[in-house]
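Quick one, probably user error.
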């Protein structure tokens, strides 16, 4: 009997994540890995020193289920600084093992079997799997490229039709992975009005909230819009903004009633997150604004460098306003689809990218794209661009 036959029916359709597959392929072929979104440089010393100090001080046992008090307070203080909203660090903040755990904690705690959940596609692959874990039914609204190449947008009428089916929740990821889209106030206001009209709850994934590059496209938290604070669970994490993806420190911010939903699942998923890492996170969230400003400046420059190189190779680049990913249309290069293109890149050009058709309910929508990560050192990107030059030949 094949091993795959033992995988539950809820998870069997998803197989191994595309990130694992492409990183394995990159390693096998010695490719520069622009597929998986993790920095190839270290995070800030302040965070590391605070975590080391916590270890040496004996802070090595379980933290509170809801999070170490120092981190809960740091998250609440940062939320107030960025949004103006005052929240209770104990009643409204839950520390999780990365946003990766916060997503299923929110869905399992909030959504009943058979209920609908709205997902914008392309979606981070975890969303679709977590909907299945909750026994829920996904419904999709597609982000499509604008004709002028300026980014991705959704059809408001398509969203209205989907919301009329009265789903339990909608998931909004802004800044968006994989497109780099930053949802506008107009778009978020439409989502908010429909949530209120149809009694829909919102789960927002804002892990790239600090990584925005255009002054006229700022990050806006859905929970700050009128009528949304009481119906939104806002998810975030340390890893992307502070280059500490391996620490797996995330959190959920929600009104007390929705926080109880998150904790109902969280207590049985991981219960608590690594104590000394939480204390390191508290330090950098409190004192790390300078690091983030410097990182954003570096990423803007690296985005522009890689975008120009991909455009020079004949790809149509959709310049991201946020996150650290670039979606590029490879159609002009003559490959059958995104899988063929990304395999060729990895095996023969020695540069790995993600084929994003796996992030769509209908894979046809993603076959002409490839996703490249620019969260890498300058020399890594320079080497990747040097190798990509072989596509000309």
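Nope, works fine. Designed sequence:
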């Amino acid at each position: 009997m094949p091993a795959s036959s033992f995988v539950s029916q809820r998870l069997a359709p998803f197989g191994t994540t595309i990130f694992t597959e492409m990183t394995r392929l990159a390693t096998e072929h010695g490719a520069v890995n622009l597929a998986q979104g993790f920095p190839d440089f270290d995070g800030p010393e302040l965070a590391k020193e605070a975590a080391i100090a916590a270890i040496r001080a004996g802070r090595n046992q379980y933290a509170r289920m809801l999070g170490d008090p120092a981190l809960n307070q740091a998250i609440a203080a940062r939320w107030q600084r960025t949004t103006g909203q005052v929240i209770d660090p104990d009643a409204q903040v839950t520390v999780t093992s990365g946003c990766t755990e916060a997503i299923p904690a929110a869905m399992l705690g909030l959504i009943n079997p058979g209920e609908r959940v709205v997902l914008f596609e392309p979606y981070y692959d975890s969303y679709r799997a977590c909907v299945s874990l909750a026994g829920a039914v996904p419904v999709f609204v597609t982000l499509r490229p604008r004709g002028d190449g300026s980014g991705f947008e959704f059809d408001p009428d398509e969203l209205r039709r989907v919301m009329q089916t009265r789903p339990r929740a909608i998931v909004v990821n802004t800044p968006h992975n994989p497109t780099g889209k930053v949802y506008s106030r107009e778009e978020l206001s439409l989502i908010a009005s429909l949530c209120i009209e149809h009694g829909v709850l919102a789960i927002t994934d804002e892990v790239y909230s600090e990584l925005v590059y255009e002054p006229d496209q700022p990050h806006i938290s859905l929970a700050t819009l009128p009528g949304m604070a009481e119906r939104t669970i806002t998810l975030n994490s340390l890893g992307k903004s502070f280059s500490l993806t391996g620490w797996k420190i995330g959190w959920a911010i929600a009104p007390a009633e929705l926080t109880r939903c998150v904790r109902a699942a969280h207590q049985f998923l991981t219960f608590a997150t690594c104590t000394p890492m939480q204390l390191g996170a508290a330090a950098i969230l409190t004192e790390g604004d300078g690091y983030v400003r410097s990182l954003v400046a570096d990423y803007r420059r690296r985005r522009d460098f890689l975008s120009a190189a991909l455009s020079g190779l004949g790809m149509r680049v959709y310049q991201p306003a946020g996150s650290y990913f670039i979606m590029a249309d490879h159609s002009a290069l003559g490959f059958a689809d995104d899988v063929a293109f990304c395999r060729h890149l990895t095996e023969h050009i020695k540069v790995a990218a993600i084929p994003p058709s796996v992030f769509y309910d209908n894979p046809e929508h993603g076959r002409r794209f490839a996703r490249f990560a620019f969260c890498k050192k300058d020399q890594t990107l320079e080497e990747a661009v040097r190798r990509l030059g072989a596509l000309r030949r």
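The longest helix spans residues 289-312.
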